[in-house]
Amino acid sequence: MGRRDGATAAAVALTVLLAAAATLLPPAAASGSPAEGLQPLSKIAIHKATVEMQPSAYVKAMKSLLGKQYGRTNPSVDDWIAVFSPANFNSGACPNPTRYPGEPLLCTAPIKYQYANYSANYIYWGKGSIRFQLINQREDFAFALFTGGLENPKLISVSEPIAFKNPKAPVYPRLAQGKSHDEMTVTWTSGYDISEAYPFVEWGLVGGSQPTRTPAGTLTFNRGSMCGEPARTVGWRDPGFIHTAFMRDLWPNKEYYYKIGHELPDGSVVWGKPYSFRAPPSPGQNSLQRVIVFGDMGKAERDGSNEFANYQPGSLNTTDTLVEDLDNYDIVFHIGDLPYANGYISQWDQFTAQVAPITAKKPYMIASGNHERDTPNTGGFFDVNDSGGECGVPAETYYYYPAENRANFWYKVDYGMFRFCIADSEHDWREGTAQYKFIEHCLSTVDRKHQPWLIFAAHRVLGYSSNSWYAQQGSFEEPEGRESLQKLWQKYRVDIAFFGHVHNYERTCPMYQSQCVTAEKSRYSGTMNGTIFVVAGGGGSHLSEYTTAIPKWSVFRDQDYGFVKLTAFNHSSLLFEYKKSSDGKVYDSFTVDRDYRDVLRCVHDSCFPTTLAT
User: Fold this and answer.
1) With respect to CATH, is domain 50-162 assigned 2.60.40?
2) Overall pTM surpassing 0.85 (yes/no)
3) With helix as H, strand as E and coil as C, how does 51-113 read?
């Protein structure tokens, strides 16, 4: 592979040519369809791998083809190609997981893999071709040829190392709104520690005078920061360095440019690509404001690797549709379950690269999901290992969000006429907890005459869902989900409560205490007597089933991939749209038209005290 500059080419396609002795066998389909919801890298028993280099097997770089040529005698349907980084993956000692007898020969999972017979003629003719897309991940790469399938892998050949021109270059900028409306943050990843180069962002008004340089803080984490397997063992990969800079005192709705960089000791600068963004509106500002909401996107591979992207089949559709529509929305809320790395840390780079065309231009606000946080005995509300031992560390480091304590994933965002209260469903939200106090404070302190649109969001369904497993429990919610919170939603007149976790779309009627408070379904006007609950978990992961019986409160259900768009035209008019990721068209919608007096009007369990005095 020709060398590329990581600052200017974050991803390259690489063609891998297969060549092997022509052992005539019937053509075979590519093997290994993954179980639904199973992280593909977890299927590789890398701790059981043996090493048996075969002279007849080879993996050889072919620069003129931007690829690799490799082969072996007696090709098999169990042959597979893996991409490793760093390239010296098969040297050195491994931290020994106690459940494995003896020291593993290989101690790190690959970044991606593909069966050799993905190229249909590999078995029949003994040759073929595969394309891999590589992104800059701070280290060199090697391609490895295995036989024996994923359960009993045998390493038989390794390529020479290849690398981007500057593996340490700054990549994948991620915007997020700061703690105040006039502050935008940018976070990015590089291979430069603060002792090697000084990180900063250069920014200014488009068409303005001299740019400003603002220094960035630098964070990272190590294997010891992980709470369990596989994140501490075969899933570990060095995350590099994560930098965050704050661009402050922004003028509302003005267009700004920025460029991330690192100043080297000799005074030269390694630059990232230039981008621009629009500053957020001030709280209460009366202007067109458009918001995207979804959860559970995951990641997928455009090159078909990792078993044909079956793990998160809708992820790329959602990403591509949002990229194509960049000019028609202003801010994104991804409410939990980001890459589903599940302890394979390399996949966080893959995810940040996938969504970078969005995050480099729009503030991308995230919530914590079970696949980011949940690890047994680590202080979470759910004692399961859905995060693969990550216990929240990568999510809390790779992305900025304006929480008072980054370990407590709850925060508020004031965006023009909207107030968003983002909760953390992986920590206790019940009455008497710190999070409950935050939620009530967030809901109670908004000035509804200037910010009429009050939105609550969390990952797990703390409201209502007719998902099959919730229905089996009889509650249509996460256990103890709404019991503590519904009185807050009602008291403070929450307009919409969003959730993910369930991988489909569903909208309820305006509700309180499991009852619809109106028969209207699409055009709401005047006083809203309850909250509309929305499941928007169809961002890309494998889809979830509904219960066959449709509850009376369920207005619209769609078992497909999609996202929600909110459009505030002014202080009185809101448009809600559900769009499918496959075509970007609207499949469900409603409008709200009301005045400030409608928010103030007394409704059940939400009346201001009055006196008989005159």
Assistant:
1) yes
2) yes
3) ECCCCCCEEEEEHHHCEEEEECCCCCCCCEEEEECCCCCCCCCCCCCCCCCCCCCCCCCCCEE
